[in-house]
């Protein structure tokens, strides 16, 4: 229990314990070694070679780090990463050991080499540990766990720094390198376990690219990312600032202490105190800063420390102020900023992350090291101490400006990373055809395509010529108006309209008598655009047999000033008994905006046809009628989704809709709330406050749904009643719908495109994609709402302790939602029936007669409370719904949709060997087998051949029903009676038309049949 509280405090989620332990051990071992090695190298260099040479060493260090980092990046991308890292550590240990042995030669140049080596190792090991952490953690884990890893490293540094002084006096400063070597070997042992146990397999693939391609991979990504460019520039500034603080501090320390053991002791004590403070900040402060400020804003804290430090030094530069500024720099850098800075790289795809991180460490960072050396050398010779500090202030201000711009770059990078996971073929920015206008060959191909023998080529050629706007195409397009194919004539008419060619009006008018009604309707629209005064030509078309043509005539007449004639045609269409004619009339109303027809439009909102209701909503929204708002609000809860969406779109532009829409959002049913949110996107400026308040109130409801689903999940899945399984699914879906509505509210008041991508990412099964989505939401969303929402999106569901499924069902049996209520009651009945069956079975064998008699009283009662019949029992209505939900093609439908299918389905029972349908008969029904088994057979010369067997939950006959064509095989009950739900062809077409998910599932089923039969 105590360990779980510690894990919760440290934000370690279930299943992450091993990962955290191994990474923490790796950080601790390597950074303990770095601390000991750096103190030893500094002490030996300062007193055996001279601290005054440090600026020149910075130049050498920058060049060395540059070469080593590029080599590291190339090796990392070219070889298996796990093997590369496990070979690198013993290699570094051997180099250190060799340098310690070489110290016996008393060669003065060895000390600058040692100093360069230890600092290069610090860069390599720092890059290595963050590479490993980035490979095993996603974006959200990095934000939670990186500070823990950093804290472990800092704790290792504390231990290493505190023992540096005593060990230097006990075993000699040179022998500290041997201890550094031993810690590298310990890190190697931990690395073996990481590679075996937690490193993701995808990160261990080797690259076959060339060496130069490996070196360029990090650069190419940085060049293509605004955020990475800003990070690279800031890395230059941070390197300059780091060494601009480090050099004066080290110079002052060297001047204060006379021998290397004292220097090593002071540096060890100072580093120990510093790293102890850094550990506390990293463990207890960093995560809270990341949550409250965001990772980019945390980086600004370090810039402020640098700026403040140079101001302090400009006023008073002493060992006390130098130590204080250096202390603040190292604590903020190690405890807060370095972790945040490394977390920024998690927006880079995982397969590119290590090369990019290595490139940044090796190129811009080392450029900053070199520049710091140059500036310090020039400053020592040209500038006064105060002027050097003023120069540092200027660099800090420039760095602050770059980091400030990184805030927007980080948001854009998160969205770009999220978008990269999704392929949107038709939503990309259109390129258009204008780049082909100057291409003579493209123009010739498009023109010649109008005479191509294939219809598709002729049609697309006409479309392209219209988009290109080529006047020389007018003659061929007029010729295409006489093409044999109506689609080509249709495309040619639209192209002529795009060209605005009034000289083609006569040829277009000839199409008013075209045999195809859609071409006649197009001709009216094109003539209306080319020749506004053409109304006299439409006398004959006003009596056209096609409703759409008459509707186009009405619109054209209205626009040309003949409003009464146009109104009369529209009124006739609206009064028709044919839904197609009513839709045509309503579409015409929507175009011309007939305000005085408002009452007819309102009446059409109650039409039985969903298509008519959609058209009525659009027309009412365009009419400007006074009662439009009151009439459109109920349509937000229409049974048909298309009507709801159209009503929402219409309400977006109504000025007085805000208050009523917010009322629907607060009090309406779920689907009305969804529609209201869509409508409120047109009122984003005035709806911000109420929308955020409403979104905040939805979060506890979503938590409650999740908790209920988690508690119901404790029931044995293999033995759970169907109603309980369905109920659990509805609760989970209800939770997601609540989350989606909250995200929609955030999109309305924020960045719609970004939130839409985030919502898609949250539904992804990929851990990395979901993590990117969560981080983007955390960065872009309203902070108050997002802080409450993130635990719901991130944490695993858990039910209240001590609560069983039955108590949840009892609570749900009183829920306001009728489906939750009904399913809960049904599930309770199932569980009670099972209890009764179990009790009576046990009681029948009881030794006491009274107990056996009690059991006998229930022996003939079925689970519905009636006497068991000998015949097959008819499915109850709820049983039908529960059964349909288990049929794969219907499994994703809402309960209301299943209810409608259950209402139109007819239950039939077929006795053994009875035919469900016969080969050759006209098919107009689909069969869904409820109980029993049916065989699909085909007659042949050798007898009937069984093609396949249809079991309970499978369907058959859908193709013949859809096409109204003869059946292609016999379907016969095989091995006993068969109960089936029969769905007529018209009902099936309606389901497929209105619910695309059913059509997709049916296609998958048909594809599986074809694959297994072939």
Give the helices and strands, then pairings.
Elements: H1 2-9, H2 17-50, H3 54-78, H4 81-102, H5 110-136, H6 139-171, H7 176-197, H8 211-223, H9 226-256, H10 260-284, H11 286-293, H12 295-315, H13 319-343, H14 350-362, H15 364-382, H16 385-419, H17 440-448, H18 455-468, H19 474-480, H20 486-499, H21 505-509, H22 517-530, H23 547-559, H24 563-574, H25 579-592, H26 598-604, H27 610-623, H28 628-632, H29 641-652, H30 658-667, H31 670-680, H32 684-712, H33 722-749, H34 752-762, H35 767-780, H36 783-794, H37 805-812, H38 818-843, H39 849-856, H40 877-886, H41 895-904, E1 906-910, E2 915-917, E3 925-931, E4 934-940, E5 943-950, E6 955-956, H42 958-963, E7 970-973, E8 978-984, H43 985-994, H44 996-1013
Antiparallel strand pairs: 1-8, 2-7, 3-6, 3-8, 4-5, 4-7
Summarize this, please?
This protein has 44 helices and 8 strands. It is mainly alpha-helical and 1014 residues long. The strands form 2 sheets. A 4-stranded antiparallel sheet has the order 1-8-3-6.
